[in-house]
Design brief:
single chain; 2 helices; Secreted protein; alpha+beta; signal; Immunoglobulin-like; disordered N terminus
Length: 229
């Protein structure tokens, strides 16, 4: 069957429209790539792979994956809190949420979520600086709002995960999302921010990275952080 030049152009435009409407969904959402980023140069806050390395990860975070690729690789990491965000699950269980992420529920013991094929747990001290990293996923451009990343740290030591409502009472930092470096694509720009570890008794605590993409639309990543004096 032969098509006119005009008909072919219409078909091509339609195909490109369908592709453009589906592709961003794969690249749209972010997550905490690293909980404890260490810079090679303390004076240069470079969150790229050339600028440092990771010393602590989120729960069941697969090591060995290229930066920013876990939206298309298994397991995916973007967990969107469905329903009322303040009452939603604080950490993905791999089943709930509009975009189902990997299982970030608390392991028993907590060490089972780290080591081997997973990244290691963060070990730090009160008063130390922790720097977290995340991929831009096309949300750090000039036309994008500079949304916030909330860092919540439970006060419950060596215990079960607290609710999202309780976590919201323990926000220890608010970081600008668009604090990003350069990369070959807007999708893979490395972003991050730093904060001081507040006073806590020695023990292991739930830390939550919580990002607001749009008003009322939050994505989370959870980690266990071992805090000492």
């Amino acid at each position: 069957m032969l098509f006119s030049t005009k008909a072919c152009a219409v078909i091509l435009v339609s195909a490109l429209t369908i592709l453009s409407s589906t592709t961003p969904a794969v690249e749209a959402h972010s997550w905490m790539d690293c909980v404890n980023w260490k810079f090679k140069n303390s004076k240069v806050k470079d969150f790229s792979d050339k600028g440092g390395h990771c010393e602590g990860y989120a729960r069941r975070f697969p090591v060995g994956k290229a930066f920013g690729t876990l939206d298309s690789a298994y397991p995916s990491r973007h967990y969107q809190q469905a329903g009322n965000p303040s009452k939603a699950l604080p950490c993905s269980d791999g089943k709930h949420g509009k975009d189902v992420g990997s299982d970030e529920t608390r392991a028993n013991p907590v060490s089972k979520a780290y080591g081997g094929k997973w990244g290691k747990m963060t070990v730090t001290k009160v008063g130390s600086t922790l720097c977290v990293r995340w991929p831009a996923k096309n949300h750090a451009e000039k036309n994008e709002d500079n949304t916030i990343v909330q860092i919540n740290l439970s006060k419950v030591r060596n215990g079960k995960d607290i609710s999202q409502q309780e976590l919201l009472k323990n926000t220890i930092a608010k970081l600008p999302y668009k604090n990003c470096g350069k990369a070959s694509t807007a999708d893979k720009r490395p972003c991050g921010g730093c904060f001081k570890v507040p006073a806590r008794a020695s023990g292991t605590y739930l830390m939550q990275w919580r990002w607001m993409l749009n008003p009322g639309e939050w994505y989370t990543s959870c980690a266990d952080v071992q805090i000492g004096k």
